[in-house]
């Protein structure tokens, strides 16, 4: 694998920012790890961080580089601060950045596939919310998305105080259709011709976000969404996410 720390300027944000990128590499003599890369452009996982983290956190807390080496899968990990992957009411346009500018820039820098079937999103906590938001608002771009212990109700148990919620999302109800995953799921299910991405959701049964995850799971089931749900013992911590990201990688519908 090639590991790249990429610092670049974002026109959308109006500032310099960063992403960490893992690129596939075919290797034959590397000790302890098989490296695989198919010819052409690489399938890509956009792997999103949580509220208190940044673009380096998945590498620092898990073995994500080792986990994807044999898959021929590129991984793009952007920095979005405490934005909830949202065009903030009082702040920067992080939704436009992550859903439009970031994929375009990453593909201009690196040999990444633009085909829907080769693009996936996943994340933990706030990043789980972001991954499902990408899936439900940009279904033409992503074929699958995974939420690990996701903060799926952006207006409730999300780690933010009331003032921070207001600065990000605006006054209650002002942008619900854009930022409420429950509403977005309903809107997607109401369009029979729209092919929604496959969804994977997991949460530890001792996690403070567990009940919000159950609510979303049941909501998705009522709507008939293609959602795989798993739960088991676990809290909101990296030992759980390190284990679960491997299950996500096994679940991804990568083309053979």
Automatic annotation (TrEMBL):
> In the record, what terms sit under GO molecular function?
hydrolase activity
Short name of one Pfam family? Esterase
Does the record carry Phosphoprotein as a key word? no
**What are the record keywords, sorted?**
Hydrolase
Name the Gene3D superfamilies on file. Answer: alpha/beta hydrolase (3.40.50.1820)
Q: What is this protein called?
A: Alpha/beta hydrolase
Species this chain originates from: Paenibacillus chartarius
């Amino acid at each position: 694998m090639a590991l790249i720390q990429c610092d670049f300027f974002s026109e959308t944000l109006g500032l310099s920012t960063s992403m960490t990128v893992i690129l596939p590499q075919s290797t034959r003599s590397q000790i302890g790890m098989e490296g695989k890369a198919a010819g052409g452009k690489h399938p890509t996982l956009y792997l999103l961080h949580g509220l208190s983290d940044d673009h380096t956190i998945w590498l620092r807390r898990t073995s994500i580089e080792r986990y994807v080496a044999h898959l021929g899968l590129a991984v793009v990990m952007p920095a979005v601060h405490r934005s909830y992957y949202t065009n903030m009411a009082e702040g920067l346009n992080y939704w436009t950045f992550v859903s439009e500018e970031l994929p375009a820039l990453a593909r201009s820098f690196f040999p990444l596939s633009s085909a829907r079937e080769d693009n996936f999103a996943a994340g933990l906590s706030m990043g789980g919310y972001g991954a499902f938001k990408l899936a439900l608002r940009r279904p033409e771009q992503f074929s699958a998305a995974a939420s690990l212990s996701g903060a799926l109700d952006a207006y409730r148990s999300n780690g933010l105080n009331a003032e921070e919620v207001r600065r990000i999302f605006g006054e209650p109800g002002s942008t619900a259709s854009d930022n409420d995953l429950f509403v977005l799921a309903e809107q997607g299910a109401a369009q029979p011709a729209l092919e929604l991405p496959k969804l994977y959701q997991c949460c530890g049964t001792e996690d403070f976000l567990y009940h919000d995850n159950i609510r979303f799971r049941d909501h998705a089931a009522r709507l008939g969404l293609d959602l795989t749900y798993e739960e088991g013992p676990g809290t909101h911590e990296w030992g759980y996410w390190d284990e679960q990201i491997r299950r996500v990688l096994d679940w991804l519908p990568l083309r053979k």
